[in-house]
Amino acid sequence: MNWRCTLILLVTIAAPLHAAELREIAVGHKKGVYTMKSVVWFDAPIDNTYAIFRSWDYSKDFSSAIVEARDVEPDEQGRPQYYSRMKGCVLFFCREFVRQGYAEVVPNEVLRAFANPDVSDFEFVNEVWTFTEEDSGTIVVYELAMDPKFWIPPAIGPYFIKRKLKQDGGQAIDRIEKIAQGLADE
To answer: Phi, psi (5° rounding) for residue 73?
Structure first.
């Protein structure tokens, strides 16, 4: 066997058998409301993948925009709550903003998060994650609708926010998968 075949064989053996796969992503903007939908397959069990999204404590580990995040005590209705502080820039317009709210959960199936506009920098943020098992991994469908309270430059803002959502989402999936796989090893 020549050295090229040996090298190809070594690379093939060393390469992971699976990796997170971004199957779909769409970002939109209409009348101040930003939307996003993504479909991702993670090479990790559904329990672990769900746990990553269910705990806001993990979000700062996979999102470069989030500088602080944590789970908060349940509200008076018993709903889990969360807090996150993010930093984002559109060209030279940089801003920190807070999102705080509650979640509705059906373990390993659906997670819905809603921002409270009284304590958030958003008129609303509604997020839904749905989880299904596929090929020893997990499909996560994510849907987002948000209306920021802060000013976004109208001529360039929507373009840059849509671009940032796509870039950050694409970069986060490998980190999410790695964390979920680490939970499986514990």
So the answer is: -50, 145
CA distance 67 to 84: 8
4 membership: H or E segment, kind and range: helix 3-14
Partners of 36 in the beta sheet?
27, 144
Given a cut of 50, whether residue 11 has pLDDT beyond it is no
Q: What is the Cα–Cα distance from 65 to 30, expressed in whole angstroms?
A: 23
Count of residues in the chain: 186
Helix axes 46-54, 157-185, angle to 10 degrees: 130
> How many whole angstroms separate alpha carbon 12 and alpha carbon 8?
6
User: For the residues 69-89, what does the mean pLDDT come to?
Assistant: 94
Q: What is d(CA 90, CA 52) in angstroms, rounded to the nearest whole number?
A: 28
Is the model's pLDDT at 138 over the cut of 90? yes
- The C-alpha atoms of residue 37 and residue 131 are separated, in whole angstroms, by 14
